[in-house]
Each structure stands twice: as C-alpha cells, then as structure tokens.
Amino acid sequence: MADFYQNGIVTTLHNLTQRTHDEMEKDLIKFSQTRPLGLILPSLYSELEGEALPQIINKLKEVPYLSEIVIGLDRADKDQYQQALGFFNQLPQHHRVLWNDGPRLKALDAELSELGLAPQEMGKGRNVWYCMGYILASGKTESVALHDCDIVTYEKSLLARLIYPVANPQFNYEFSKGFYARISEGKINGRVSRLLVTPLIKALQRVVGHNEYLEYMDSFRYPLAGEFSFRRDVLNDLRIPSDWGLEIGVLSEMHRNYAHNRICQVDIADNYDHKHQDLSLDNAEAGLSKMSIDITKAFYRKLATQGETFSTEAFRTLKATYYRIALDYVETYHNDALMNGLTTDIHLEEKAVEMFAQNIVTAGQRFLDNPMETPFMPTWSRVVSAMPDVLERLKAAVEADNAEFN
C-alpha cells in the first residue's frame, strides 16, 4: 500500500485502498460507452512462444471495455504472421495485427523513406510508431493504453489502472505513465532506472543548475516504465525516438507539448517483472550498456534544445558528480532491500554504476561528434502533410493482409 505523498510537479495517483478490480472495471465499462478505449501491444514473434504473452492474452480475453486491440508484429515471415493471426484470433475484441515485415507495409515504409519520413532504426520505437498511426487511421478509440508483451506478472488490474486516468471523463489528463515496484526472486531489479536515471538527473541538476525540465523528470517514480496511456489527439504531434531512449523521449515530448496538470503517473501493480537485459559490461552496443548510452544522449539532446552548452570538460564533471551520487544510492537500495527481507549484490551494483559512469562520457562524446543526429521519428501530423492519404493507405494495407492471410 502506497502513501499519498505528491512528489515533484506531476500528479501521482496512488493505490491507497486496494480498490477491487471489479469496481474499476464497472467504471471503465461506463466510460467506454462515450469514450471508446483501445490497447497497443508491440510484440516480437518470438514472444508468442514465450511464457508471458499467452497469459496476457488469456487475461485480455476477459476485458469487456476495450473497443480495439492493435498488435504490432516484428520479425515474422509469412508463415509466422499467419500463425500470429491464429494466435490473436482468440481475442473477442476487434483487433488487427500489423505485419511490419510484410510486403505491403514494407512498400509503404519504402515510400516514406524516399520522403525522409520513415523510421531509420528497427525496434520497439518503430513498431509503436506504426501502431500509433493505425490507431489514428482506424478512428475506433479515443483513449489508448500501451504495454509490453513480456510481463510475466500480468494482471487485468494493471491495464485497468493504467488506462483509468485517460478514460475517466472527469479527469483532464492527456497522458498517464505507469509505475510499480521491480522485485523478483527476492531481489530488487530495475538497475537502469535506480542506478542511472535517478542519480543522473540529480547530477545534471547540480551541474546545470535549476531546470524545470529536470524537475519534471525527477517527478516520475519509474521513468523507464514501458506502460503508458494517452488520449488519441496526443498521437498527432508526438515525436518518439527509435532507440532505447523511447521512454525518456516520450516523457520529454509530453513536457514540450502539454502543461503539467495534463500529465500524471499511476501506481499500476504491487509487483512487476519481465525479461531482463544483460549488463553487457564489455559491449557498448548491446544490453544495458547501449541502453544507458541512448538514454543519456536523450537527456543531452533535450537540454541542448533549451540552450544548455556541453563540452568534454562538462561531461567529465557530470561523470564525477554522478558517480558519487550513484554510489550513495547503492547503499540506500541495499538498506531498503534488507529492511524488506530482500537482497542486492553490492559488487554487481557498483560494477553497473562504474559502467554507467563511463557511458556518461561515451554518450557525451558521441553527442559532440554527431550533434546533428536526429533519432526521432517524425510526427504523424508531418507525415500526413507530406502524404495526405498515408493513414488510409496504412489501414488498407493492414486490412488487406488480414483478409488475405486470416
């Protein structure tokens, strides 16, 4: 059970009373009659054969308030796409599977590439971007949730609590970010959020000085959570990164586009676990190492747009400041774990901090070497301006794939 403390400048919606899921579901059914609700599931084909996604689908079959489920399917050939259609056909809700590797969507992507408007990097960001375009094209939903397909602790209540803030017509939120505890097998997880993002924000505040954006980012209890929900109109002007900076990039875009009172975070689960990335101590192009570099660059890019000037010396100072703060957090989390009968490996925690500290400088050098790097995918408003019929063509391609192979 959470406390009621409001930290920072973003509203926090707590889980104070363990309100039953049935009560929340009754509300959502009522809300959905005037504000249709949808869900985006970015998925790899391999996740259909994993432990988590089949259980998620079993839970979603019992959700009565969704008007539409949009699944983005990556890394699937024709046979695998057909198998995916059969797999998702157990859903009673209206649903469509975007075959991102199919000839129709690849042809549309090639046309967008010629205009300089297609995502440049494969991955979750690109998958989510096309799903968002389909949501705009279908026009079936007014409020949409998005969550990953590898959540092994998934419950219907997670989705209900996630979408509730943007579904309730009495609320004025355009965007809701989920947060939760990351605990499994008797230990605290979430190292990148705990040991990189939080101390990095604190260090940036010391080095840069008072900054309203950093205060905003420091308000989020789990900024790297991949679960969020939004009103459909948000999708028109949302620029999202195609790299590991997706979650930080989305929060930054919401800061740019909306007032703080239109943004909230909500407690969606007592516990949450999904697949874990390797630390990748010896490979800066993989695992948590690459993730930390992309996330750190996302902060640098955002602050640069606000007029902050960076140099090699500034990044060295930031590294030293971060390192001291992060080491203090290692002790803090270790004590918190012991208090709750959990464990942390101090040696591995400090090795992670050492890697993150080095990557703060690595990310800075890459930022200085390539200041014109633009990993953001264009807004759908811009794409529609360049290709006015793009949403209709996207929807037609998805429908044609569904009709041919289903």
Descriptive account of the structure:
- The protein is an alpha/beta fold.
- It is 50% helix and 12% strand.
- The protein is globular and about 60 Å long.
- A hairpin with a 2-residue loop joins strand 7 (183-184) and strand 8 (187-188).
- The protein contains 14 helices and ten strands.
- Helix 5 (124-138) crosses helix 14 (390-405), helix 9 runs parallel beside helix 10 and helix 11 runs antiparallel to helix 12.
- It has an eight-stranded mixed sheet, sandwiched between helices.
- The chain starts with 10 loop residues before the first strand and ends with a helix.
- Keywords: Transferase.
- This is Glycosyl transferase.
- One of its GO terms (molecular function) is transferase activity.
- It comes from Shewanella aestuarii.
